Amino acid sequence: MAKNHIYFLLLSLAIFIPSLHANTLESDEFWQEREKEYDKYWQHREKVAETDNEEAYSSDPYDVSGNLTSSVSELIVGKDTRRNLKGRLGKGKCTVTNPIDRCWRCDPNWAKDRQKLASCVQGFGRNTVGGKGGPFYVVTDSSDSELVNLKPGTLRHAVTRDGPLWITFGRSMFIRLQQELIVSSNKTIDGRGVDIYIADGAGITIQFVKNVIIHGVKIFNIHAGNGGMIRDSEAHYGLRTRSDGDGISVFGSSNVWIDHVSMRKCQDGLIDVIYGSTAVTISNSHFTDHNEVMLFGASDSHTQDKIMQITLAFNHFGKRLVQRMPRCRWGFIHVVNNDYTHWEMYAIGGSKGPTIICEGNRFIAPPNIHAKQITKRDYSPESVWSNWQWRSINDEYMNGAYFVESGPKLSDRPFSKQDMISARPGRYVGRLTRYAGSIKCIVGTPC
């Protein structure tokens, strides 16, 4: 019996200790260092981004999230209850499992009309166009040896060009970024048709820009960069401080869509969305092997994040994840039809009163009897967090999982009539997320 108690204590410590290492972005020292690099150029970009973010903000977030749930309901159930999930385009069988994928995946000519992808995004990032309308840029060189005098054909050269670009890859490649990859506005990174690995180096930074799509890449083993002189556009380069080790960092930006990415093992977060970013959709992605998965809102003092609006849809939160799927401050987060098959501490957490609407997700709790609760509130007594709007609508709970709701019930929420309430879609999540992560696409056939 004593051995059992000792084993339980060690297991609890193994789970708890990682949580003591806070995300880099939550430390005052990080922000003090980051402000040092704000020359007049970056100060101007910040002002422009603030205007863009305000324009991207939706004054009726319930309506946006309701449109997405309506689309899912139509795909699964529709007016004809015999309707299945088979696509009608392409030769042979093609299974489309959610409304975003239905837009493009079963078209055998997807490679001839790559920019059609930009019309497929839903949720808060629904207006993201990336590099649509711009020319194609084919990355042919996997190196990243130059950070200022950039080498044509490299990914860093591509993402720092002026104007919209649709970036593809001439072959499968492994890219090790020497320092953070700073992406300019109106860019699409499209990894379909090849295997693209961004790993064993720094991550991707989306800072004070708009209209960025990242699709079909694998990102893992990301480390903090030491900083230095780094180019961020054709006309500008400057001194950057140490990067934080996020896989993807969305910083003061709007209209961002991250779709069909596979991510694991980054030094800091897998995806962080902070500093007044809004109009973001993260969809169809697969996450494994990480402690603090997603941070939405960097600090309790950064009230800019009140305009943050993020959709998490059709993602699979898989093996060896610990917590923060996501962890939210401020803002409005719509968590719809995600598959939570693993966590060690909790799945969804937050502070500073974010609105979190969970619909049609599947939550499978871990064996640990002390980690069955899906939710976690930080730094506030129940008398405060009981007023936060955290609702669970037709989620499926398994293995003892449970969601602690708060705030007023949404009996009269202004969602569209054909929403997920009547469809009870939690049971369909396995199908909806079947192709989460980077998928194998072969030119000339449906993906």
Automatic annotation (TrEMBL):
Pathway the protein takes part in: Glycan metabolism; pectin degradation; 2-dehydro-3-deoxy-D-gluconate from pectin: step 2/5
Catalytic reaction annotation: Eliminative cleavage of (1->4)-alpha-D-galacturonan to give oligosaccharides with 4-deoxy-alpha-D-galact-4-enuronosyl groups at their non-reducing ends
Matches recorded under SUPFAM superfamilies: Pectin lyase-like
Cofactors: Ca(2+)
Keyword field: Calcium, Cell wall, Glycoprotein, Lyase, Metal-binding, Secreted, Signal
Protein name, entry field: Pectate lyase
Main subcellular localisation: secreted
Enzyme nomenclature, EC number: 4.2.2.2
MF term (GO), any: metal ion binding
Signal peptide bounds: 1-22
Similarity annotation: Belongs to the polysaccharide lyase 1 family.
Record text on cofactor binding: Binds 1 Ca(2+) ion. Required for its activity.
Compartment list: Secreted, Cell wall
Residue ranges of domain Pectate lyase in the record: 172-369
